[in-house]
Amino acid sequence: MTETFTLTAKVQKKGDWYISSCLELDISSQGKTIEEAVSNLKEAVELYIEIEGIDLPVKRPFLTKFKVKGKKTEDKKTEDKKTENKKKN
């Protein structure tokens, strides 16, 4: 019997591409748009499940958040204004 399962996708922009990753199965794909990246990931996951004979549902990863300290990157306009002000003084 075929059922539909919901998996988790993480999508990040890398240059001109969107990289999509299935967190439960550690599989990734890419596309020129978010929609294409997720569609390609879905296809890759379906093939992986079929070829490897993976039983669903799979356990979801434990996700949490944490904080770290670091220097905030300023945007280009702010940096240009600071450079311009230094030149005037």
Automatic annotation (TrEMBL):
Highest taxon listed in the record's lineage: Archaea
Stored SUPFAM superfamilies: TTHA1013/TTHA0281-like
Region listing for Disordered, in residue ranges: 69-89
Listed Basic and acidic residues bias regions: 71-83
Annotated InterPro entries: TA_system_antitoxin, TTHA1013/TTHA0281-like
Listed name of the protein: HicB-like antitoxin of toxin-antitoxin system domain-containing protein
